[in-house]
């Protein structure tokens, strides 16, 4: 029987168990260990969001969506990082450039499509959480708001799908999809910024959180260009780059939205002043004859 000490001494063996067969450029145990760390962070934050959802969500759809959106984002990334840490959910693609080389001379690089599956659900959920945090006390679901949310979801997913397709293409045509991703990204930023910064009622923390998300989001295409696109950095460095961005974007910053939402939802509501009713009884108006003057 294998003792607990022996199991602990073995450490992370995901790359040894799920071997990167047929790959020349792939992650090592160090990269897998970092992915396990990120997985643990997303798991803990998911539990925090579950607690906030059941404790603080109100009996209206707007409040429910406000709390469940960041939960969807963290759960999606938890699933994706468990898969990647286990060295699963990947495929091999020949690199266009040979900046990263191996002794065998091969150029088949490991591409984790599991990350893009997580992003497909996480990015729209995060952007919707930002939009909901701009005015989470309302329960208005008009045509304008609904169309805006649909555009936010579609543009975010086009960003993710474009990067995925580009990562799976060997030729220089991948950069065409990279361009599509940038356009979709800028359009998403415009839509969300219009809702957050265009409203005076938006909480201050919501505006700060949105700005931080947009700043980090700009770094994602750079990470893609250095890894799947340009083969400039090694897969372990790729996991570190993406991992730090993902943890900050989908785990840390959404807690600001939850905090701002709690502040704004507990703030006392103000209503227009109404003149006090007079105690003097109102006498019914009597009919007057034509030409009679009121005294």
UniProtKB/TrEMBL annotation:
Pfam families the UniProt entry points to: Bac_rhodopsin (PF01036)
UniProtKB keywords: Membrane, Receptor, Transmembrane, Transmembrane helix
GO cellular component, one term: endoplasmic reticulum
InterPro entries given in the database record: Arc/bac/fun_rhodopsins, Yro2-like_7TM
Subcellular location: Membrane
Family label: Belongs to the archaeal/bacterial/fungal opsin family.
Name of the protein in question: Family A G protein-coupled receptor-like protein
Source species of the chain: Ascoidea rubescens DSM 1968
């Amino acid at each position: 029987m294998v003792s607990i000490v022996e199991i602990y001494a073995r450490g992370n063996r995901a790359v040894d168990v799920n071997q990167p067969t047929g790959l020349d450029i792939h992650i090592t145990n160090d990269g897998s260990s970092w992915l396990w760390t990120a997985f643990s962070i997303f798991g803990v934050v998911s539990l925090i969001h579950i607690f906030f959802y059941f404790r603080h969500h109100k009996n209206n759809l707007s409040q429910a969506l406000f709390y469940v959106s960041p939960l969807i984002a963290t759960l999606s990334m938890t699933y994706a990082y468990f898969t990647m840490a286990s060295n699963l959910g990947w495929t091999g693609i020949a690199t266009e450039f040979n900046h990263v080389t191996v002794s065998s001379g091969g150029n088949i690089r490991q591409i984790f499509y599991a990350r893009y599956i997580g992003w497909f659900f996480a990015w729209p959920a995060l952007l919707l959480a930002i939009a909901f945090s701009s005015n989470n006390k309302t329960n208005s679901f008009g045509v304008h708001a609904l169309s805006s949310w649909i555009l936010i979801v579609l543009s975010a997913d086009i960003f993710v799908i474009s990067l995925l397709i580009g990562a799976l293409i060997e030729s220089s045509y991948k950069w065409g999809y990279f361009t599509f991703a940038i356009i979709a990204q800028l359009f998403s930023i415009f839509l969300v910024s219009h809702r957050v910064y265009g409203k005076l009622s938006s909480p201050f923390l919501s505006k700060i959180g949105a700005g931080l998300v947009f700043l980090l989001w700009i770094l994602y295409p750079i990470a893609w260009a250095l890894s799947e696109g340009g083969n400039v950095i090694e897969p372990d460095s790729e996991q570190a780059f993406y991992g730090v961005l993902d943890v900050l974007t989908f785990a840390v910053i959404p807690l600001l939205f939850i905090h701002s939402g709690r502040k704004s939802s507990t703030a006392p509501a103000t209503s227009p002043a109404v003149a006090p009713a007079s105690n003097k009884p109102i006498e019914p108006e009597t009919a007057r004859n034509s030409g009679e003057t009121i005294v």
